[in-house]
Amino acid sequence: MQRSRGRHHKKRTALRFFLLLPILIFVAVVVAWSLDGGQNGRVARNVSLAGKPVGGMSADELRAVAGQVAQEYTQASVEVDAPQGGFRTDAQALGLTVQVEPTVADTLALEQSGTVVKRIWGWFQSFFTARKAPVRISVDRKSVYRVVDAQDPGPRTPPTEPGIRAQEGRLQTVGGSAGKGIDAAQLIERLPDAAGNGLPIKVRVDRGEVAPRFTVDDARKLIREAELLTAGGVPVKAGDQAATVPPETVRSWLRSQPTEDGLILKVDHKAATAGLRRLLDKPNPPPKDAAYDVVNGAVTIVPGRPGIGCCAETAGGIVEGAVLVPTGRPVDLPVVEIPPKVTADELSLAGIKEQVGTFTTNHAAGQPRVRNIHLMADMLRGQIIKPGKTFSINKFIGERTREKGFVVDAVIQDGKFEESVGGGISQFATTMFNAAFFAGLEFPEYQSHSLYISRYPYGREATLSYPRPDLQIKNPSPHPILIWPTYTRSSITVSLYSTKWVDAQQTGQSVESRGPCKLVRTERTITYLADRTTKVDRVNALYRPAEGVNCS
Question: Which pTM was predicted?
Fold first, then answer.
């Protein structure tokens, strides 16, 4: 009986032991964890920092290692691996630095967070598995974007950043679009994990869509800023010219420019300078072209001179400063010399050097028509007929009106003598027609008087009205023709100057009846001086026998 009781007691004791064993083991583990790494202020077991073992170190010992890591990382190589090609750079280029104190704090905090069971389990695993402490780094975002833009070997299409544009005086946003390549934002995101693996830093990134750095909201903010800055326009002055550039004009010059810090306003310097020149478009003094003068039958050249006006090429940049930092005061714009369009050198090379044709007709002095003839001469003096070009008197002078200074005198209208503003100018037309005739020029359009007037050469003359008939003269020569009318109280002379290249003479004339009228054909023979070949052409005149008589 006693042996039976003893056996039962031993069984109960063994059972208690087996029941208590897990508790004893757990207590032993907890004690061991507490003594080894639980709450002793040291780094947990089997931990490395950037490849350096730091397990069991005190905070000061760890801080020394972290400082060493930070020093090593300042010279670290960074290998960026991406599909189709990455690139190599360094920590300095990326603005990468190790944050020592956050790294120390995070390393000491390993196995110091979570439930006790979780922390003990982590400690237990440390006997079998090494653990990496995080390396806390910071990078300069601007530097990372700069490096990726410069070193991504491609294929790469930069993203288009949103911006602004002016349309009908109003600023509007322009949306951006994604590009293709290595995304700097993804590189920044993945660098911290890669840095924890030690040196060299190797980071794997994708090659795909690259989003714009800025948003349409950033562009909207820029528009609000621009509208405030330009609300009052921009007062400007250049020399003695002054004006205020309207807000809508200033806004048409505005552009957005993406920078490392954000979207900023810029002024298109070229557009602004061109706009200012249109606004302040009256140089003082204006430039004066070189011109011909004829003195005693000899052609001379009067040199031109530059004018002074708006603006130098730097004007756009000056206006940009006034737009972005408005003062309310007029902006002084740099003036510039405005060269003449025609220089003396150009005129001297043109070959206008001698008289090639001239003709004079006479008239009674003191009549109203003389004023009209003289006005025509003054308006046409100095005009040039370029080689191969046709000169139209009606196109150049336009309608003869009182506002232009013309007066009333006799004209022939529908075969009858009447009065009209500009009467008498047909005498100028006839004089110029004959000068051109003897210069060997051509007549795409002309018409004789319908009644013969004795002061004009018979059959060799032209009338003029507006818009028809016109007198058009074509220059078939290789040299420009200078028109140079002169007059006295009782005569008008038209002389033409160029390089003489033909000799033209009237060599015949015939008359035939056209009903009651006479058709006069005047023959001209042109001799080319270069090879002495000749050409014969004719001009025609149709005369009525009297006023009111029709030819048909």
Answer: 0.63
Helix axes 116-125, 2-33, angle to 10 degrees: 80
Q: Residue 39: what pLDDT?
A: 47
Q: Are 137 and 195 in contact (CB under 8 A)?
A: yes
DSSP 403-468: GGT--EEEEEETTEEEEEETTTHHHHHHHHHHHHHHHT-EEEE----SB--TTS-TT------SSS
3-state helix, strand and coil shares in percent for the chain, rounded to the nearest 5 = 35, 30, 35
Q: What pLDDT does residue 125 have?
A: 44
Mean pLDDT of the chain: 88
Q: What is the pLDDT of residue 168?
A: 83
Residue 98: count other Cβ atoms within 10 Å of its Cβ: 23
Question: Structure tokens of 151?
Answer: 């070193």
CA distance 264 to 181: 25
Name 130's bridge partners. Answer: none
Mean pLDDT for 98-103 is 94
φ, ψ at 102 (rounded to 5°): -60, -35
Report residue 14's pLDDT band, with 50, 70 and 90 as the boundaries. Answer: low
323-326 long-range Cβ contacts below 8 angstroms, 24+ apart: 323/229, 323/230, 323/234, 323/250, 323/253, 323/254, 323/265, 323/267, 324/229, 324/265, 324/267, 326/229, 326/232, 326/234
86: left (phi over 0), alpha (psi -120 to 50) or beta: beta
8 Å CB contact between 203 and 190? yes
Task: Report the distance separating Cα 307 and Cα 272, nearest Å.
Answer: 21
Cα–Cα distance for residue pair 133/197, rounded to 1 Å: 9
Distance CA 390, CA 393 (A): 10
Q: What is the pLDDT of residue 45?
A: 84
